[in-house]
From TrEMBL:
<protein>
    <submittedName>
        <fullName>Amino acid decarboxylase</fullName>
    </submittedName>
</protein>
<dbReference type="InterPro" id="IPR015422">
    <property type="entry name" value="PyrdxlP-dep_Trfase_small"/>
</dbReference>
<keyword id="KW-0456">Lyase</keyword>
<dbReference type="GO" id="GO:0004058">
    <property type="term" value="F:aromatic-L-amino-acid decarboxylase activity"/>
</dbReference>
<dbReference type="InterPro" id="IPR010977">
    <property type="entry name" value="Aromatic_deC"/>
</dbReference>
<feature type="modified residue" description="N6-(pyridoxal phosphate)lysine">
    <location>
        <position position="295"/>
    </location>
</feature>
<dbReference type="InterPro" id="IPR021115">
    <property type="entry name" value="Pyridoxal-P_BS"/>
</dbReference>
<dbReference type="InterPro" id="IPR015424">
    <property type="entry name" value="PyrdxlP-dep_Trfase"/>
</dbReference>
<dbReference type="GO" id="GO:0019752">
    <property type="term" value="P:carboxylic acid metabolic process"/>
</dbReference>
<dbReference type="InterPro" id="IPR015421">
    <property type="entry name" value="PyrdxlP-dep_Trfase_major"/>
</dbReference>
<dbReference type="GO" id="GO:0030170">
    <property type="term" value="F:pyridoxal phosphate binding"/>
</dbReference>
<dbReference type="InterPro" id="IPR002129">
    <property type="entry name" value="PyrdxlP-dep_de-COase"/>
</dbReference>
<comment type="similarity">
    <text>Belongs to the group II decarboxylase family.</text>
</comment>
<dbReference type="Pfam" id="PF00282">
    <property type="entry name" value="Pyridoxal_deC"/>
</dbReference>
<keyword id="KW-0663">Pyridoxal phosphate</keyword>
<keyword id="KW-0210">Decarboxylase</keyword>
Length: 470
């Protein structure tokens, strides 16, 4: 064994303690460190021939790279839809690396049984029935891709072909209908060979909405003259957290033949709150469902889950036909359910967080985040230089400048907010107007954080008015 590696093995407990101490220091200061870093990263160095050892690597990382890492795990990082990592999920994630299980199959380990238990807990959390089976994947994009891959196989079944064997060309043109699809849907269609241009946007409801007009969807399906299609419904749009009427869409199956995929990346968590659970009424009727767990479940990257009612078709797509793996029989191994052969045990951090805090603890996070989003919305509405672009429906505040919200001026606002180090918001364009989004999903966020975010917005918008862009 290499002498440095042997020395690290002998000193492993002390090395883990050093890593623990660094992590503890970083997390202890998370609320006060700059939320983002806009300065230039260090230049690259060459690959060392002689290693520094684990302790040396830790020291160099702490000196050279750690100062530039964002506070994305902290309470005022409101960009994208980014959760943090609960204490229990961090513990579970560390143990995931320590045990280093390959969760692709059940041979020789209980790891896959733990994943199945965790999937069952999540299914219950979101109000799905036992008809839905599930598996862990890397994120919402992978979850959407898996769901649409199963939908693609279903289309073949309707048309009397096997896409997994004959190829996507056997389908001919495919129709994918959605009101406000997330960008990952187009990416998934590209990966699956269905084509980005096969995504057809259906009109949405009037009145500052992103939810699909079910009557318009009915008409679009009628226009297909019986040809089977895929419908992508939304449970929580990225700009304004609008929800399609899932029950009404599912009812269209009485007259039309389509696969219903629901992108519920973070909106599924509305099911946890009695005040918002009605928004996901009908989710159980979906043929496949996407839920992202490193968002509102607050487990570390990367973790998501996908559900489907047609595991048989999922196996047809993803089974790995190799003698050393065997064909799936009975309860199929996860190697036959997702694109990956080798799989990190992503279920363990989620298991830890669910076991530690239960449904009640995670409900509190959802309800607190929603209340804080409403509070920021009220604050923004009271600022002279800002205005809301849409109502605050759940956990996202969509805002812009009150006057001249050009792309250049809104970009300048975003830069000023980020430069403050107080918070980070990501840009969007809603109803043709450039704006910013503040997405609340971190378990740490509290009222005082909302006050600091609002103050940063007020300061940045005031600076912009005093030094106008363009």
């Amino acid at each position: 064994m290499h002498p440095t590696l042997a020395d690290d093995l002998d000193r492993l407990p002390a090395l883990l303690q050093s890593a623990r101490d660094l992590a503890a220091r970083e997390l202890a200061g998370l609320s006060e460190r700059p939320v983002v870093h806009l300065d230039t990263a260090p230049g690259r160095t060459g690959l060392p021939a002689g290693g520094a050892g684990a302790e040396g690597a830790l020291e160099r990382f702490a000196e050279r790279w750690a100062p530039g890492f964002s506070g994305s795990a902290g309470p005022r990082y409101l960009g994208f839809v980014t959760g943090g990592a609960t204490p229990a999920s961090v513990a579970g994630d560390w143990l995931t690396s320590a045990y280093d299980q390959n969760g692709s199959g059940s041979a020789g380990s209980w790891a896959t049984a733990l994943e199945r238990e965790t999937v069952a807990w999540l299914r219950e959390l979101f109000g799905l029935g036992e008809a839905h089976s599930g598996a862990f994947v890397t994120g919402a994009t992978a979850s959407n891709t898996v769901g649409l891959a199963v939908a693609r196989e279903w289309l073949g079944e309707r048309l009397g072909v096997s896409v997994s064997r004959d190829g996507v060309a056997a389908l001919g043109p495919v129709d994918v209908l959605s009101g406000s699809p997330h960008s990952s849907i187009g990416k998934a269609l590209s990966v699956l060979g269905l084509g980005r241009d096969r995504l057809r946007q259906v009109p949405v409801l009037a009145g500052n909405r992103e939810a699909v007009d079910v009557d318009a969807l009915d008409a679009a399906l009628t226009g297909l003259r019986g040809r089977p299609a895929i419908v992508v419904a939304n449970a929580g749009t990225v700009n304004t957290v609008d929800f399609d009427d899932l029950r009404a869409i599912a009812a269209l199956k009485e007259r039309h033949e389509f696969w219903l995929h629901v992108d519920a990346a973070f909106g599924a968590f509305a099911a946890l709150s009695p005040a918002h659970a009605h928004l996901v009424d009908g989710l159980d009727a979906a043929d496949s469902v996407c839920v992202d767990l490193h968002k509102w479940l607050n487990v570390p990257y990367d973790a998501a889950v996908q559900f489907t009612r047609r595991r048989d078709l999922q196996v047809a797509v993803f089974h790995n036909a190799s003698p050393y793996l065997g064909l799936p029989t009975g309860e199929p191994d996860f190697v036959h359910l997702t694109p990956e052969n080798s799989r990190r045990l992503r279920a363990l951090p989620a298991w830890f967080s669910l076991m530690a805090y239960g449904s009640d603890g995670h409900r509190e996070i959802v309800e607190r985040n929603a209340a804080l989003a409403r509070a920021l919305g009220v604050g923004v509405a009271g600022v002279e230089g800002l205005r809301l672009l849409a109502p605050v429906r759940l956990n996202v505040v969509c805002l812009t400048l009150a006057d001249e919200p050009t792309q250049e001026r809104v970009d300048a606002l975003a830069r000023a907010v980020a430069a403050s180090g107080e918070t980070f918001l990501t840009p969007t364009v809603y109803a043709g107007v450039p704006g910013l989004r503040a997405a609340f999903s971190n378990w740490r966020t509290a009222e005082e954080d909302v006050e600091r975010v609002l103050a940063a917005l007020v300061t940045a918008s005031g600076q912009l008015e005093r030094s106008p862009v363009g």
